Amino acid sequence: MGGKPGEGLLELVAARQGHFRLESGHHSTLWLDLDTLFAQPSRIRPLVEQLAQTLRPYEPAGVCGPLVGGAFLAQMVAALLAVEFCFTERVMPAERDGMYRPRYRLPRGLRDRVGGKRFAIVDDVISAGSAAGGCYAELQTHGADPIVVGALLLLGSVGRSFFSGQGVPVESVARLPYELWTPEKCPLCASQMPLEDVTSDTHR
Known about the structure:
This protein is of the alpha/beta class. The chain has one domain: Rossmann fold, CATH 3.40.50.2020. Helix content is 30%, strand content 29%. The chain contains 7 helices and 9 strands, in the order H-E-E-H-E-H-E-E-H-E-H-E-H-E-H-E. The protein has helices spanning 5-10, 41-55, 69-81, 108-111, 130-141, 158-165, 187-190; strands at residues 14-21, 27-33, 62-66, 84-91, 103-105, 118-126, 145-155, 170-176, 196-197. A 6-stranded mixed β-sheet has the order 5-4-3-6-7-8, with helices on both faces. Helix 6 (158-165) links the parallel strand 7 and strand 8 (170-176). Helix 2 (41-55) packs across helix 3. The longest helix is centred in the first third of the chain and has 15 residues, at 41-55.
């Protein structure tokens, strides 16, 4: 991967320009298809190792990530740090409108394992922080202490601002600018540009 880390990551995914509604409910002009990000683990491993080293000083007892990409990343980071691994699964409500609608749930067999432990939350790419925020809420529900959030790529500032408000630091290998709008403030909606709903394909 050449160039800056963020540019290298973008070489591993398919990016499209348009008018997209993301899982969080925000609208954006950029959509990243992350399905291929872990298709060749050897290509992504140097970035995963860099993230693991950034998270090591926080001394987590475990690493949690949302299915699917975040869980793949969490498993790799947990192995590098020699700590526990867990994951959450997305539960989508019936209603389609509103912000931050999905919920993330630990599998039943993992819920009793997280209580009283310090956890790092990781996701491959974080923009609005919908999936990472869902992991944060679920871990707290079951008595865990989420101490840091990590990402290979941090897009924009919305997700980071949320965790800053919770007193949780956000670490990333790379950061890139990224515009997000709530539906009522979206300039693409105002210009009547057709909207593509990608909420079934993303976990950000």
